[in-house]
Fold each of these.
Amino acid sequence: MERQDYERLRWRCIRRALLELDITLTRFLDDGFDQLSDAEQRVFVELADMEDHDLWYLLSGKTECDDPRFAPLVAKIRKS
Amino acid sequence: MSIPVLKFDAVIVGAGGAGLRSAIQLSEAGLKTAVLSKVFPTRSHTVAAQGGVAASLGNSEEDHWTWHMYDTVKGSDWLGDQDAIEFMCKKANEVVVELEHYGMPFDRTDNGKIYQRPFGGHMSNFGEKPVRRSCAAADRTGHAMLHAMYQRNVKANTQFFVEWMALDLIRDEEGHVLGVTAMEMETGQIVIFHARATIFATGGAGRIFYSSTNAFINTGDGLGMAARAGIPLEDMEFWQFHPTGVAGAGVLITEGVRGEGGILRNSSKERFMERYAPNAKDLASRDVVSRAMATEIKEGRGCGVNKDYVLLDITHLDPATIMKRLPGIHEIGLQFAGVDCLKEPLPVVPTCHYQMGGIPTHYSGRVVVPKNGDANTIVPGFYAGGECACASVHGANRLGTNSLLDLLVFGKSAGDSAVEDLKAGKAHRDLPKDVADKTLARIAALDNRKGGANVHETRLAMQRTMQDHAGVFRFGDMLKQGVEKILEVEKAARQLEIKDKSMAWNTARTEALEMENLIEVAKATMISAEARKESRGAHVRDDAPDTAEFPNGRNDKEWLKHTLFSPVDNSISYKPVNMQPLTVEAVALKTRSY
Ligand SMILES: Cc1cc2nc3c(=O)[nH]c(=O)nc-3n(C[C@H](O)[C@H](O)[C@H](O)COP(=O)(O)OP(=O)(O)OC[C@H]3O[C@@H](n4cnc5c(N)ncnc54)[C@H](O)[C@@H]3O)c2cc1C
């Protein structure tokens, strides 16, 4: 990912409306994101674009992830 | 270097609840209005508010704004200004119904009215029994509120500058406020927003503490900008804490955990609440529990390498009960403490939640400062609302659901006052020649400094100092040391160094600029807290205990007054509390007990 794109993504992950997401996404960017394939990184950008409550419910397991594109990534973030 | 100038009638910094509410007033009055935000508006921290917004609609049972006013004055431990409190409580129904008209999907009763539920501290008939006053939209009240107001603004042609960070307030020699300097994050370019009215709605600054429920965005930028422009900060010693946040993370653990039988333990596994509250034990009130936790930590009985947290133990409870009655707690433990709470206790610590103080404002939303003997002189062109402002309605402690009300009422009144002042005429005043010099110098210093302080380390030093020395329960000697320590941290914060010098999306630079704001708030808090030698509301000192002469440690003879911290020379002055409501009789001083 280009530096600019990464830094834009980073800002949008480390300044969320919910503290839970700030912590979870920052942690994943710091040690997990690098190991994703280019395609997975693009999916992550889409995931990070979700509304805060919806995303947190997915990442905390409160709602099932029924989108097959997101599910493997959600599982990785939950494990990180 | 010539810097682009954008001209607006009004510039609003902040697109959370307060900023969006102000913007509606201005744009709908036909004024050219810009709203700046570090994030997309519906990512503002108002989204996190789930509990609801208070209004004495009386939909579920009898209620009256005077009862709400009484509760708010009492909650504030009589430090709230009674004119502002009357103004807010009386306006509550109007602003909530307006929101409904903007399309806010409030929960409803069977007959279609806004459904209301009870919330701590809100009572009927002047403190008699709990009343249902909180209006919510499922568990997304703040989020739904922002959506409704954002849409309304789009319709009204408010111009949004998203992912822009305001950096400094522009004031001329006579003290008039003329706008802000700001940075577009995508390009790193600095731009001047030249305005006839400037409204701050930048939210809280809870990130000054090590443990905070606030999202990372709450860095007190509005307070930092105001302080750098010589505006004093009011009542900064008052911060509301929650007894149980996950140590190190801040994520809230509901009080329901203790309700279900959770037990607090210290480093020797002792159930210490038995010593502090032999009857209620772990179910004692919030303040009693927080104080006990802080005392255990201060006296060296905390856990972990730094001995800076205690344990919340639910391992003796039936796992099935935990999963059923406390949904989410298991996940929170795993994600934020790395602990399986069914097998091991959770590390917890009293955690900062809400900032009661802020930029001093009149209830009209106009910023007021002391000048020539008048404590409340208007700063022309400057307005503030929401958590960054101090109207002061929350005084020494805020009631839950009153802050969403605060941002609606005072967001709106700041907007109305700006419209009124702008309609009265007056063209843009000339920008001072050195308009952006200070901002440019700050940025250049960051970019050029070698061997300076690291941003993350400096922030951590500040947060630890605040947590240890000005936490939920305060000790005279610790506060004194805290002042020295925070002034040391300030030196580092004035010498920050960043490695990344790029223009576009330089998050390191943005975080350094946020740090320069945080330190202003931290310093104001520590110095104001050290100076106030009584206990009142959320400011509780070990050396101002509960006595017959001073119940709860509160000393009205000497301390019934607002603190004003002057950032110019770190000095403190005071101004009287307004005890005179607008139309009703004052709520007379009494000991606060629930
Ligand atoms: C977990 C949690 C739950 C809560 N629940 C409730 C509740 O149920 N009921 C209740 O009444 N209160 C609640 N509160 C408190 C309440 O949510 C806040 O006090 C309130 O939302 C603050 O709103 P605001 O508009 O002042 O600021 P925010 O919503 O924080 O918005 C601040 C805005 O300013 C912008 N900004 C900041 N600095 C800059 C800058 N330098 N340049 C450009 N833009 C900037 C941000 O981008 C953002 O748009 C809760 C708080 C928390 C932390």
Amino acid sequence: MSKGENRTDHLPRSPGVGDDPREHKDTNTPPGKIRFRDLDEAVIEADRCIQCGSCAAACPSDSIGIDEIDGKPTLVKMCTGCSRCWDFCPRSGLRYERVIEETEANREGSTSAYAVRADDDSAREAGQDGGAVTALLAGLLEAGEIDGAVVAREREDEPLRGEAMLATSREELLESGGSIFNQTMQLGEIDRVVGESDLDDPDLALVGTPCVIQGAKALESFGRPGEGSEIALTVALFCTRSFEYDRLTSLLVEHGVEPEAVDHLDVADGKLFAYGESETLLETDVEAFDAAGLPGCEECADFTGRAADIAAGNVASPDDATTFVVRGERGADALDAAASELEIEDLGDDTALRKLAGWNRRKAEETLPREFDPEGDLSIGYEQHRERYDDTDRAPQSHNPARAYQYERWC
Amino acid sequence: MSDVSVVGPAWLDDHRDEVAVVDVRDENSYESVGHVPGAVNVPYEAIRDPTSGTAGHLPTPAEFAGLCAEAGIDEETPIVAYDDGPGVYAARLLLTAAALGHEGELYLLDGGYDDWSDSYETETGPVEGDEAASYDADEPGSPVVGRERVETAVDEDETVLVDTRSAAEYDSAHIPGAVQLGWEDLVADGSLKDREEIRRMLADRGLDADREIVLYCNTARRLSHTYAVLSELGYESVYAYEGSLTDWIREESDDWSPEGLEQQVREYADEGFEALVDAHGDGVLDRLKLIGLYHQKQRGYFMLRTKVPGGNLTAEQARVIGEVADEFATAPEEYGGAEQNAEFGDAYLDITDRQDIQMHWIELEDVPEIWDRYDEVGLTTMQACGNSVRNVVACPVSGLDPEEELDAQSVADRVTERFLGDEHYANLPRKFKVSVTGCHENCARAEINDLGLLPARKDGRVGFNAKIGGGLSDGPRIARDLDLFVEPDQVVDLVEAAADFFIDHGSYLDTAVNRLRFLVAEMGVETVREEIEARASFEFESAGEGLTERYRGDHVGVHEQADGNRYVGLNVPVGRMGGAEFARLADLAEQYGNGEVRVTLNQNAVLPGVAPDEVEQLREDPVVKRYSPDPGPFTRGVLACTGKEYCTYGIINTKNRAVRWARELDEWYEQEYDGPADPDAIRMHLSGCSASCAQPQIADIGLRGEDRRTIEGSEPAVDVGLGGDLGRERFIDWIVGSHPTADLPDAVRRVLDAYAADTEDEPFSVWVEQTPRERLFDLVTDRAESTATPTEADD
Ligand SMILES: Cc1cc2nc3c(=O)[nH]c(=O)nc-3n(C[C@H](O)[C@H](O)[C@H](O)COP(=O)(O)OP(=O)(O)OC[C@H]3O[C@@H](n4cnc5c(N)ncnc54)[C@H](O)[C@@H]3O)c2cc1C
Ligand code: SF4
Ligand code: SF4
Ligand code: SF4
């Protein structure tokens, strides 16, 4: 950072939007100090959180956990105000487009697109599209390239609700095949799932929506020395939006579909499908579910997960295949190492992919209250955020004491 | 009391025009997913306010009235409330209305929005501009009850306590005598089960309609649903306990009593750490703080905190502490053993700025042995941590100082004795810090304690003036004058009354903002005074004439005592010294001094009662040489908390860094600094994070650990503040945020050179106050081009 770049720092920092008792104090706030409650107001209370879990992963004191009710980040321990959660949140302090830009600039090797199918029937069965992601991970596990993959599965107690899991065997991968259309705080869950396993210092593959991978990349590139080094491969799932769990199930019910009856959902060609064990329960324009989309997703311009080593989706390839975009040496090596598990063809015409990505990006640029600037500063300060977001419908909302931090752990 | 009825979508469809329909889901769901036509939106979250002064989670009557009025509801309007599903959240609104005196009918929509939208029309979009109404809410009352009601229920037979959580939760802990009735067992597929089936379940548990029932859960949310169901079934005496179960348990159970915890430690000492955690869960690690054991970052090892009221130790006690540190505070080989810390090795202890002594790497296996040795010499670790009356700090030279008005030590001892082991006060809403000063020099920092006592005179009597509500960390405040004079004999009463007030009004629910200072800020110091007086056993009188003349930073150096002897203030940089060295101090105290070792609020040690002609000889001892009473100004003024080395919150390492800086800066000071202003000490306080354990706010140069993330990566950093001065009741001004630690000694030099150039004899804090912020900012940040390597190793 060049000298003097923080020059506005000596100005008094504006207080958060809520009337917090801690603001009635006898000294000023250190310039640039950002606490969890600022993130909370600007992102979570403002209903912009995409539940990527970057904040939880970045917090040095593990102060951020997952709220039992809404699945969003919440404080579970004292917050020291180190600003890291803000600095790594792609909806506030982290200019995610710059992360993508840096990642691409530093990547060695080329990018190719393929149509990929799992070689094995069970993986194809278990998978959402071609089962290619499942097969890729199984291949890497068996080749000893990774010790585990952080994926997602449906929770046992709530239909369609996802949770992060660590798969360390083919069986577990088959179990977790298919797409989960709500967010799991994936990045913040890595420590937990690894901690609960018997792996020690493992090499991992991380699967997640593009925002999750942005966070992972940011920690690896701009974090503390060694941070993020356990992730040997990142796999992004193409994504235009994810859904808020309660709203999603409410809308399903409204469309006459009981969430319990749904085996899996799919979003493809502008339609949303709900499938039962054997029949199609619902096929409707995905717009009918707009209200359940995470509002924070509208600010996302990263359909193809450009920070990831491999990105996977359904668009542009045949129905029974997965589109793979394989980037750089890490991506290519992974594909090689798992080749025996996969049927790989060149993608051929990628117009549909490029169109959708372009549309997604234009939409995001329209929605973002701030400028979309891949060359811009990596960091977006609290004041800068407020300048752009205040007085928009994405403005910070005062922190709600009811969501307050009922933690018992202090220094 | 107001009844709640449970109605279905068909009923609502018929009666929609006669009632106010309230949607308690969040605004986004209400607007975008849809709502019952004509429904108003009062988001559930808006009606829960654990930070308000009102009982439990209830909003204040004014807040609730405002929400209702805005939604066009007056106190007689019938209300139908719904949420996404079976109605836990909606029931919460109804219970809130009932408690705040709503007079109209209350209905819960069974199955919520999901069932409604299955069969009936919905609408989307924002709230229609309903006519605002006026609403008159009462102070909270029945059906919401407090802890006393539960206490009676536990003791008598007429009332049944009902635990509305799951059977598993009930099994892990419940209030004695409570019957389990999980709210979820009453619903199936998102709506209420068949009424007859529910009646059978109730009958199975002996819950007849004519019994008095008190419901509880964890956060007063789930019980609301059960309340509605019982009310629907014609139960007339149903009450809700707003306090959380955690709150109850902490108050009542062995798990939270110091004796119970001590027992657990002794029981598992042989089997070890993991066995204890297996048996009592990870939560036991939080509870152990209550008896002085802080679990370190390194699994299986503890920091042990010994409290030293007023900082006063006998030589015998000091020797035991030193020996224990030497023997047990040793790092295991896997963490580097004796080399684990480049600066200090291991087997050391830390004197803290609250006159406690901490040691690290303590293993569970050794704790009983340590306690036994402690018992023999009258030391304790009980209530050294946790939400209790913390170590009472006092003037470390009380009884010695020639200018003393009162013996602060004896007052500190009496307060300590009163609260030690008292279970009632072992679980305050948060920690409670008391400071007692007896001299004219305010060396015990009354301003930053919850309750601070400074000497005063009134009508010829000598006693204390009280200050209340000071503290650092998040939202720092200087204590306010309570306008109260107390005699030394009344102090214990006062502390008790203040603690009682804290228990009654401090929120157990929102732990983030419940230090006493927030109550003082919220209620105003006059109200707080009245509240405390109401709980005290003596009549309050207004403040006397304060006797404080100045503020004293430390006790380093050789000073004359009232009796003509000397006390020798040793300088222990950042408070850390070897256990063996500390034991040596005990020898010296016996050999040269009066048999006491005192520890100060500056992380230093004092040897009192040295005969004037023996001082020189004492100075020759290697330990006295090492912790010299004549240090350089930086080494003398440096203070640091535990930091990242052991503390889970610490963002950067502190102790090693701070001593290194102090050494480097002292050299510079001696050789190059050329200022007319030549202070004895330059107080540089380095705290690992904003919890501010090293009290950066009162330093000349206050530093607080941060992390600085740039495109080049993350590096350790500090917030830099300047010009704190308790003598002038001034906290520092924070000048720069997240400045790289790599540039730190240089930044201090730049600031001090500018100070020296600007002024002849002004105190540093005055200079800071008069210098424009921008200039200070430039002085701190102006990095000489490449002193800073991008990432300083964070050792
Ligand atoms: C929210 C969301 C939106 C999507 N939108 C589109 C779209 O608009 N267009 C498009 O072409 N493709 C989209 N996809 C990607 C698509 O649904 C498939 O995931 C992709 O084609 C890979 O298919 P597969 O059969 O190879 O994967 P599979 O073999 O099914 O393997 C997928 C792996 O990803 C993991 N996983 C699934 N969901 C998540 C999640 N939410 N977080 C973390 N890990 C997860 C699974 O556990 C599994 O290990 C979306 C995916 C998601 C999760
Ligand atoms: S301590 Fe954790 S929650 Fe608080 S600011 Fe830092 S990263 Fe955020
Ligand atoms: S968007 Fe991601 S990083 Fe930001 S608050 Fe939500 S979970 Fe945390
Ligand atoms: S659209 Fe973007 S922000 Fe939303 S889940 Fe997908 S990747 Fe994340």
Amino acid sequence: MEKLAGQNKKKSFREPGTDSTYLIKTENLSKIYPIGLTTLTALDNINLAFVKGDFAGLVGPSGSGKTTLLNILGSLDSPTTGSAVVMGKKVETLTHREAAGLRNHHIGFIFQTFNLLPVYSVYENVEFPLLLQNFSSSGRKKLVMDALEWVGLADRAFSKPLQLSGGQSQRVAIARAIVKNPELVLADEPTANLDAENSRNIMDTMARLNENLKTTFIFATHDEKVMRYLKRIITLNDGRVAKDERAAGEGT
Amino acid sequence: MIKFLIKGLLRDRSRSLFPVLTVSSGVFLAVVLYSFMNGVIADMINSTARYQTGHVKVMTQAYAEESNQMPNDLALTGINEITQTLKDNYPDMIWTARIKFGGLLDIPDEKGETKDQGPVTGLAVDLFSPSSPEWDLLRIEKSIIRGRIPVERGEILIGDEFAGKLDIAPGDTATLISSTMFGSMAIYNFKIAGTVRFGISAMDRGAILADIADIQEALDMQDTAGELLGYFPDNIYNDEKAAEIAASFNRQFKDPDDRFSPIMRTLPVESGLSDYIAMIDSMGVIIVSIFIAAMSIVLWNSGLMGSLRRYGEIGVRLAVGENKTHIYKTLILESLFIGIFGSVIGTAAGTGVSYLMQIYGIDYGYLMKNSSMMISNVYRAKVSTGSFFIGFIPGIVSTVLGASIAGTGIYRRQTASLFKELEV
Ligand SMILES: Nc1ncnc2c1ncn2[C@@H]1O[C@H](COP(=O)(O)OP(=O)(O)O)[C@@H](O)[C@H]1O
Ligand SMILES: [Mg+2]
């Protein structure tokens, strides 16, 4: 574990005038989709802040805006009005290239459907984010093997994704998300395609990462099993924050 | 990163094998089509030049006006002197006199009675002077089917099919019944030395090849010939040079007021093949344009399908932090690999097949039984420098063009909606 933490030296690139207390802060954030002649308000005036080490979940029924918010926080989408500051960057002002840089260095994604690249081995899938950065091949090898070690799949490094079970695939996806040791991991319904045991297994893994590396996790989920792990539960309803609660034993 | 991409390309057949197959078959078709048309046109020009027009042809102006009627009464007299002048003025060219004639060929039985008779056209060429270029020009030895080549005066060659029709064989006698240059009846006995295949349906079915001295004697045409043909020494028609020679000759010898003064005409003017010759030049351009347009559309579409199929992959790459421009560049780089690879395969296969068609040819004589066109019965492709580029360059251009157009889909779509493809 210390090995992974060792390379967590990223130069600050916080924009002046942004609040460094928070890893993420949204202000009056709204997302409105045009639907024919009318519009659909997917997110309505969201004001949320996350600090380093948060292990938080966006919960709520389908269509409540969880994915949309997660995509904006991950700089894959931008708000229609309002603002989202992610690690000192205003998402709404980033160019494609800047947004890609933010994701590449600071954010890991985990999806419901794993989304491993089928023609590449487990090792190559996990290695891919590092290829976009300037690591030596021995440096990459060490990081990839460390990450696979973390998720308990070092022995499957040269398997192909199709040879893995769903639980194993999702653990590879977690390794891919954490291999570059990002500050933030965004996970959209990570357990929706998994059985109870595998769900527990991957949540354990992520809780451990959060505990040891202080990596911030934000989930979108409506899975009870996931909610039990969360330190903070933000309930969305019709694109609005209905509740924002800390779990028992958590401060504030 | 490039290594990573190539690995993916090689492992994912729908990304490598199928596009390569598409490109190589397109390139293959373009190469074969081009070489084939090239060969057919070159053949057409060749056989026209060989039997009919030469690369340039000298006649009297009067003969030129009615040349398709073989008007030997209008033939060129003083042929030896004119030939010498031509040899002096244009020493690089090969010059040879010929007479075309028509008449009846009469086949006698043992008693000398007519056994069979048929209309005949004939070509009289110099067979027996030691420096005669005709053996090479007409490839006489190669076209013998039965019998042997003529070795002395009075011997002729006859179209093999014609011989079959008249039921005569080498060694038999045949009598030509025609008219002299001055309009009286001409009768001349020949011995059949052998049968030949001219490679032109009309001639195979009704022509003989005789020595020019015999015909001059038979038709009373001493020192006279209908036509004087000139050939480039490499036997390849060069329009520019031919036009230049004709112009200089006509300036010097053509007298507009004297119908019996000589005129020189070039192959395209004399044969009406000028359109075909122009076609050779524009053909390349046409094939390339059609090919690029068609292939780009095909590849664009397969590129579109490919990228649709790959939105998942592209979504992951975006999520991991690759930017759109980088992804776009890698798509184009991939297409460049595929274009080069497919074009190499297609060009190799295309020129290979064309080369086989150049050596063996496709005989379509059976399709032309009743034609009187003076073209060769064998389609032959011709591999030229153009064959190597006609498919290769467009293959690469259209692959890359197709990918560039299809790839813009990445930009046209919102990042988030590319990303949405990741959701089930
Ligand atoms: N690209 C889009 N265009 C139009 N409407 C969209 C688009 N993306 C999401 N929506 C709508 O926004 C709302 C929120 O969607 P989403 O964030 O996916 O919800 P959740 O993830 O909570 O199920 C839904 O009503 C959905 O139909
Ligand atoms: Mg969702």
Amino acid sequence: MATGVINFKKVNKSFDTDEGVNHVLKDIDLSIPKGKIFGVIGYSGAGKSTLIRCINGLEKPTDGTVTFNDQIVNQLDHKSLLNLRGKISMIFQQFNLMPGRTIAENISLPIKYQGFSKEEVSSKVRKLLDLVGLPDKYSAYPSSLSGGQKQRIAIARALINDPEVLLCDEATSALDPETTDSILTLLKQLNKDYGITIIIVTHEMHVIESICDDIAVLDKGSIVEQGNVYAVFSDPKEELTKKFINTTSNLKISQELVDTINLRPGQKLIRLSYRDGETVTPLISDISRQFNVNANIIIGDIKLIQKQLLGGLIIVLDGDKAAVDSAEQYLQQQKDVEVEVINHAR
Amino acid sequence: MLDKYFPNVAANWQAFTESILETIEMVIIAGLISFVVSLLLGIILVVTQQDGISPNRVVWNIIDKLINLFRSIPFIILIVALIPLTTVISGTAIGVRGTIFPLVIGITPFFSRQIESALNDTNSGLIETGEAIGLTNFQIIRSIYLHESISGLTRMTTTTIVSLIGLTAIVGVVGGGGLGNFAIQYGYQQNQFDVTLACIIVLLIIVTIVQILGTLISETLKH
Ligand SMILES: Nc1ncnc2c1ncn2[C@@H]1O[C@H](COP(=O)(O)OP(=O)(O)O)[C@@H](O)[C@H]1O
Ligand SMILES: [Mg+2]
């Protein structure tokens, strides 16, 4: 089990509050593989921030252990913990740049007291500014930057110690979709070029499907499902996981929409969900040819998850009643396709 | 003009200018000492509070309660109560030298609260970031708490200096010197109203200068 760069073993965390004990993390077992992008998804209040903060010791588990390589994070003394935070850095939803410092001072704050010469610091900062694509912001103040630029600077700051692990707590949740994608691209690039292990906690499914290799679904403090993103997406077991997947899929059509599609006698409205990386078209042409039916595609939703196709179609099968029935049966027999008849004409 | 509208001030011109200088001297010395003490107390309060970077219930409670205690004593009573201690510390309880100790004790509780509040205005996310990037508590105090609240600290210091000017006038009543003393001696006891008026005008000018300077500095420190 303990094979990852970061491992959680039976981690529990409770907070004592005025209203009583709040049990925020429950028996968390997690293994985060080195060099991967690991996503944790859950609703607000699920305990995502608490979980990620256990990794760099900002939060201490009530019991259980969190390990980084062979160190037990929750048993480190304060000094070792400060050292650890050079190797595990973090970015935040609100960027948290120091408004009273220039961009260069912000980026170099983590190494301000490490005895580097002015020239060394300045050259490190310039390299990082190039890396995050903002070379001309050296002397600017944070207030003059956009949200996406601020997060880029926060990423540069997080990289100045050459960390092994980067923790991202809702790092894109305050950004618009386009900026989100540009930050995700940057994170992916860091992961690929420098082998940095990235851990992302988010409530946005889009983030998970864009860049994560592995995923854990956190529900009220418990991990209800985890595994390779494609495996989890193509065959979700838990209700909550399905809900999250549906947030970015338009295959889940509303009853209203179903009602507006007038089916003629013999027609069937069918949802096909693909479960392996095969392409979609042959199936449709297959049934048209074999059974002499028409398959009208109403909605198509196919995305690329880890370079594999995932998604499906909503089609109207049209033709002779017997032909439509056998075409449906044929579809049902396909191993890698889930078939659901949404509606059929009376 | 002075002879016409402020005859009694003109008659005691030297004592008047001396009392202005005394007031300024009291404000500067008591202010500086109190600034150092209050900054220390304010920092300790913020660091040791429940969600501070190094919570310590006992230390926080002691300082918090002491400040509340001293704040609840009216200043004029505090001066009188402190006279024995003042004599031991300053060698005298009268004159400018005798006023510094009670002034410091009188203003520090207020000043500490002002500094505490300025420091607490620092966005908690920034403090958390300081911890996450591996800064020690001392470095967080220096590079984040103090650095990011410098504009707020300037504003709070300005407010405190204005209050302190008020206290120096009260101290004057019990033989401390300065404009308060001058106003009581001539304006009140000898019923020379022009003296009282002149003291008010000078105090008003000093307060205005302090406030303008404070705002100016605070604004230039903002980013
Ligand atoms: N320092 C704390 N003291 C008390 N309760 C806390 C603290 N931090 C988090 N919580 C509680 O833990 C729960 C999970 O919070 P959090 O980890 O921030 O969730 P998420 O990041 O998934 O929104 C919430 O109910 C929150 O109120
Ligand atoms: Mg959170």
